[in-house]
Design goal:
mainly alpha; 141 residues; elongated; 0% strand
Length: 141
């Protein structure tokens, strides 16, 4: 049975992976989907959400008008979304690798069954993330 430090470490690692995957989706312009973990409690009523969105649009319009008046140009992004997504997925691959039993021994001894299950988990996550990387188009320079 996993000890409390093992459990805590795994939950923190899973939260990090979940946030990384949501970030990859946002960078690709996709909806983040249903994250495994939520950081915030949704305590904003729909009417307030609309008011805030409208106010943000107003702030952006003020900046847009100022930029147009003074001929301030936005520059093209230096990085492609594919490059950033691949980089984040590479980091997720490292995180998945660190879920293997060799990396968790510092949190206490593992039973052979737990070590085997953690190795399967790490391998499965690496395979899943590798498949995600392969879904991305090749990077253009």
């Amino acid at each position: 049975m996993l000890s409390d430090p093992h459990r805590q470490h795994l939950v923190v690692a899973f939260r990090h992976l979940d946030e990384t995957l949501s970030e990859v989706l946002r960078q690709l312009g996709a909806q983040p989907g249903r994250p495994l973990f939520t950081r915030l409690r949704d305590d904003v009523d729909p009417a307030a959400r609309v008011r805030v969105a409208n106010a943000i649009d107003g702030v952006r319009e003020d900046m847009r008008a100022f930029m147009a008046r003074y001929d301030l140009q936005t520059t093209m992004p230096a990085l492609g979304a594919t490059h950033v997504a691949r980089s984040r997925l590479d980091l997720a691959m490292v995180c998945a690798s660190e879920l293997g039993p060799g990396h968790l021994r510092g949190y206490g001894a593992l039973t052979e069954a737990d070590a085997d299950e953690l190795e399967v988990l790490a391998t499965t996550l690496r395979d899943d993330i590798g498949a995600l990387i392969n879904l991305l188009p090749e990077q253009r320079s």
